[in-house]
């Protein structure tokens, strides 16, 4: 049996995995980290560089990409070492800082997803008043809330040890050990984290996207019926409305599917683990945390790769055309679509 800190009593036990297991784990996690960094960096460069993309919606997407990039840069590399080695080599203070930053950025990413759904709701359901309701100031307030609330919640909970409230004796006697860094929640803090970081923003997303889907479907049906009443000359419009309806359903399904698949298992286990006397294996907790991180990897694909403008921007970045004079004024599309 190998310990994380051999010379200290009460040290955590180090993983006994062989290199046959450890090396593939490191490779997969490094690939995930690099994909997260590259994908979100491309979104940040595209939206920041091209003036045509400086819209309220893209400001939200850009802010979310910054959150996801920072998660890949500041959090995931240290989580990788902890997950593979089962040891923490970076000190107790940095453990608290890492855990706080982890919770903050993960929650901030989910908050951004929720506010993007609000933005899309007004764009689809109230397009005539969209620009008046979703102004730059409103978006800046959304971004400020998405950063500030998770930061206050995460750093307050970890540094004030509110996550241990009601389970201090259990934690220090049976879970805490030297050379380890644990994401631990008591019953009260587990419910609070579940409600704040997942259930409330997730419910907002689910309700809004459900309403968007049914309204978009109704609009497409209305266009179809109107075209049928006019004449056969409008068959192209009917086909276009059907394609838009299918695309809307597909996009919304992917958005909610990715979010739920990535985050639901982790938060479900977080809220039930304290009520089952912490019987969920640490290995499973690690797997679920990385599933949550995967959401930040997939966000740029879901929210940016689906847009044709992003594909054009990506080509210009790869071929170095962004370094040309006045490249920021390049037209990526003919008209801005909400």
TrEMBL record:
InterPro entries: GPCR_Rhodpsn, GPCR_Rhodpsn_7TM, TAAR, TAAR1, TAAR_fam. It holds the Pfam family 7tm_1. CDD domains: 7tmA_TAAR1. GO terms for cellular component: endoplasmic reticulum membrane; plasma membrane. It is a multi-pass membrane protein. Keywords: Cell membrane, Disulfide bond, Endoplasmic reticulum, G-protein coupled receptor, Glycoprotein, Membrane, Receptor, Transducer, Transmembrane, Transmembrane helix. The chain crosses the membrane at residues 23-47, 59-80, 134-160, 191-214, 252-275, 287-310. GO terms for biological process: adenylate cyclase-activating G protein-coupled receptor signaling pathway; adenylate cyclase-inhibiting G protein-coupled receptor signaling pathway; G protein-coupled receptor signaling pathway; phospholipase C-activating G protein-coupled receptor signaling pathway. GO terms for molecular function: trace-amine receptor activity. It comes from the Eukaryota. It is found in: Cell membrane; Endoplasmic reticulum membrane. Residues 39-303 form the G-protein coupled receptors family 1 profile domain. The keyword Cell membrane applies. Its main location: membrane. PANTHER family: HISTAMINE RECEPTOR-RELATED G-PROTEIN COUPLED RECEPTOR, TRACE AMINE-ASSOCIATED RECEPTOR 1. Belongs to the G-protein coupled receptor 1 family. This is Trace amine-associated receptor 1.
């Amino acid at each position: 049996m190998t310990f994380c800190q051999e010379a200290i009593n009460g040290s955590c036990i180090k993983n006994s995995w062989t290199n046959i297991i450890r090396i593939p784990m490191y490779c997969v996690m490094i690939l995930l980290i690099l994909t997260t960094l590259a994908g979100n960096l491309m979104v940040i460069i595209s939206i920041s560089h091209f003036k045509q993309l400086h819209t309220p919606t893209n400001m939200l997407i850009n802010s979310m990409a910054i959150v996801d990039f920072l998660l890949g840069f500041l959090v995931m590399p240290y989580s990788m070492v902890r997950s593979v080695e089962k040891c923490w080599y970076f000190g107790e203070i940095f453990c608290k800082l890492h855990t706080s930053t982890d919770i903050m950025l993960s929650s901030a990413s989910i908050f951004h997803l929720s506010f993007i759904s609000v933005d899309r709701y007004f764009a689809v359901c109230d397009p005539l008043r969209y620009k008046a309701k979703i102004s730059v100031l409103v978006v800046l307030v959304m971004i400020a809330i998405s950063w500030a609330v998770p930061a206050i919640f995460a750093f307050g909970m970890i540094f004030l040890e509110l996550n241990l409230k009601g389970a201090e004796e259990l934690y220090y006697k049976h879970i805490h050990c030297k050379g380890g860094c644990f994401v631990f929640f008591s019953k009260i803090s587990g419910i609070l984290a579940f409600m704040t970081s997942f259930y409330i923003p997730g419910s907002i997303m689910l309700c809004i996207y459900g309403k968007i889907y049914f309204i978009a479907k109704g609009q497409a049906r209305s266009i179809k019926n109107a075209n049928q009443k006019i004449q056969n000359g409008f068959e192209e419009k009917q086909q276009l409305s059907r394609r838009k309806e299918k695309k809307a359903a597909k996009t919304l399904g992917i958005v909610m599917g990715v979010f739920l698949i990535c985050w639901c298992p982790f938060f479900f286990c977080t809220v039930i683990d304290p009520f089952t006397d912490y019987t969920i294996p640490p290995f499973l907790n690690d797997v679920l945390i990385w599933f949550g991180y995967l959401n930040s990897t997939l966000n740029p694909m879901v929210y940016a790769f689906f847009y044709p403008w992003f594909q054009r921007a990506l080509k210009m970045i790869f071929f170095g055309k962004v370094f040309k004079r006045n490249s920021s004024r390049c037209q990526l599309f003919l008209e801005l679509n909400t």
